[in-house]
Write a structure and sequence with these properties.
about 200 residues, single chain, about 75% helix, Arc Repressor Mutant, subunit A, DNA binding, elongated, Rna Polymerase Sigma Factor, Chain: A, 8 helices, transcription regulation, mainly alpha, WH-like_DNA-bd_sf, RNA polymerase sigma factor, sigma factor activity
């Protein structure tokens, strides 16, 4: 990894592409969490790659490359979100996690679904849709901290570096986001139960 970093700092495009590729899925998930739609997330990811490439010679190594890229991405996402608010008077579309070529599914593994048969697949798919719906009703900051922790599997320490807040603040945000997610999930499930009656 250090060799890739040194080569990328010296302008080696292939080395930079390899570094960026290693962080692409976590970056994609975070962009989706903040922006909530595929087009904006794709724009943010491309812009992040360009900004990171330009800044790579100045990368000091005070943090992991993935953390550094994530910070660039989040600044880009927040800037893009502000721009979109000024451009579009109405709310953007619903939170959509799937994108062509992006392995960011919340659904359980195929092995588990196959083992349980068709009924288990339908149940798992329904649960995944309920989770997506509940996530879609959360604020972007709540989605972000949940995605960083649960989907990208980042430790609290790395999230604190990414978000530039203390580890205690990350734990508090996680706790509050979990509570809001649970409430949104329960609310969505109770509405579906009423419709089924």
């Amino acid at each position: 990894m250090d060799d890739l970093i040194q080569r990328a700092r010296k302008g080696d495009g292939e080395a930079f592409a390899a570094l960026f590729e290693r962080s692409k899925q976590p970056l994609w998930r975070a962009a989706m969490a903040v922006l909530g739609n595929v087009d904006d997330a794709s724009d943010a990811l491309q812009e992040t790659a360009v900004k990171a490439w330009r800044a790579m010679p100045r990368f000091g190594g005070r943090s992991a490359v993935g953390t550094w890229l994530m910070r660039i991405l989040l600044r880009t996402c927040y800037d893009l979100r502000q721009t979109r608010k000024r451009e579009t008077p109405c709310a953007m579309g619903a939170f959509d996690i799937d994108a062509e070529g992006a392995d960011v599914s919340w659904e359980p593994s195929a092995e588990r679904a196959l083992a349980g048969g068709a009924q288990a697949r339908d149940s798992d798919r329904d649960e995944a849709l309920d989770v997506r719906d509940a996530l879609g009703r959360l604020a972007a900051d709540d989605r972000l901290v949940l995605v960083l922790f649960y989907v990208n599997d980042f430790p609290v320490r790395q999230i604190s570096q990414i978000m530039n807040v203390s580890e205690g603040a990350v734990r508090t945000r996680l706790s509050r986001a979990r509570d809001r997610f649970k409430a949104a999930y329960r609310d969505g499930s109770s509405k579906e139960a009423e419709v089924a009656r």
